[in-house]
Amino acid sequence: MGKTLFTIGYEGLDPERLTGALRGAGVAVLADVRAVANSRKRGFSKNALRTGLEEAGLGYSHWRQLGTPKAGREAARADDAALLHRIYCEEVLETAEGIAALDGLAALAEGAPVCLLCFERDPARCHRRILTERLAQRGFAVVDLFG
Fold first, then answer.
1. Residues 131/134/135/140 CA torsion (nearest 10 deg)
2. In terms of domain of life, where is this protein from (predicted)?
3. Cα–Cα distance for residue pair 42/132, rounded to 1 Å
4. From its phi and psi, is residue 12 left (phi > 0), alpha (psi between -120 and 50) or beta?
5. How remote is the C-alpha of 134 from its chain's centroid?
6. Which of 32, 33, 27 is nearest to 58 (CA)?
7. Is pTM, for the whole model, over 0.90?
8. What CA–CA distance (Å, rounded) separates 134 from 137?
9. Considering only CA atoms, which of 31, 18, 17 is closest in space to residue 66?
10. How far is CA 44 from the centre of its chain?
């Protein structure tokens, strides 16, 4: 069995439940894969999230370059998985910057248990699913956490 990669969406969670789910799964580093690491939800903007995780003994890493472009986020909100997939692959994963970021994320996950974070609770409605499909091809088993 290869390495395990976790994912979680913070929709419906508070920072304490997020931290509890990560610790319970043995996650060492939260990889924030939002293009824009801001949130109207308390504790989920980049600096507050990093601080809360560090206080809980967890690492934080922001992978802005693996975030979804605005059109992709709109497709996700409209529950158009095919359009999200096309936009995300063309505009992110098939670019030099996206390929380099995916390689970096894979290297991070080789060295420590990593969990990908975005907003959507359901990973099937999020670009996390596309990322984990690519990483599964590199030998990662994927576990979706729900807090």
1. 120
2. Bacteria
3. 27
4. left
5. 13
6. 27
7. yes
8. 5
9. 31
10. 13
User: 3-state SS string over 81-104?
Assistant: HHHHHHHHHHHHHCCHHHHHHHHH
Are 139 and 5 a contacting pair, CB within 8 Å? no
Distance (Å, whole) CA 57 – CA 81: 35
pLDDT, tens digit, for every residue of 83-132? 999 999 999 999 999 999 999 999 999 999 999 999 999 999 999 999 99
* Structure tokens, 46: 């980049």
Q: For the chain, what percentages of helix, strand and coil (3-state, to nearest 5) are there?
A: 50, 15, 35
d(CA 103, CA 53): 24
